[in-house]
Amino acid sequence: MLGALAQHGNLRDSKALFDRMAQGNAVSWNTLICGYAHAGHSREALGMFLAMDLAGMEPECVTFAAAVEACSQLLDLAQGRRIHSEITAAGIISEELGLGVANALINLYGRCGRMDLARACFDLLIHERILRSNSIPWTSIVGHYARNGYPAEAMELFHAMAVEGLSQTPVLFISMLSSCSHGGKLEIARRLFLSMIQDYGQDPTIDHFMCMLDLLARNGKLGDAQDLIQALDLQSEELIAWRTLVAACKSHGDLPRGRGAVEMAMAADDAMAAPYVMLSAMYREQGVDGGDGNELSR
Description:
The chain is mainly alpha-helical. The protein contains 17 helices and no strands. It is 71% helix and 0% strand.
């Protein structure tokens, strides 16, 4: 009963039923903790995990993973490291069942910016030969390297995945393109984008094109960025795309192209004032008359 309630997200009744039990067993504790974690109630999940420890109950692998994930959502690095110590003492990661726990730890440390600790967990999986054909930890650590500003390390493991015969997912390509964008690696991103299509047979999504747009804009390839926007059916992302180009035109001082991008942004949403404000600032910075933008409203 408790498991059924938790699986359906009825956590209030699950907790009430748990509290009525004369003496909860390890299964009931594990069930409720995982239920809280999967529903996004991270503080409740972590609180129950700590109470379970005080009650002398033995957590299962999935319970450890849920507790670490709760710490990840809360960015509670200190508590996560304490739980990691318990996991190490239990010898869980040295077993096949510890894959989920290790991946939760990689996410925790990656989200908290501790890539040294995330890599240590990943390398332990390699050492214990647990990864095999499972690409989830690979995708996770590559994504965290990319988001934390380590493009070289992300690229190293990205290529290692191919050597291991693991498939690169569309989400992984987004992480890699984003990493190139923030690292200013335009040519690498171009090759990745083409490789995604030609070598991996994946169709780019709007998210992939938006990464390329951001990369072109950041690197001053404003003509290429504009051509990309005009060639695509961006639908709900059209306003964001034109605003990206307006911001890039402001950064690179391209007033004529910026004016045209503002007009397109306002055509996409005439209630949005931000592109107009950016153009006015561009006029002022370049000392050009027309900074009030009245000509756009005619």
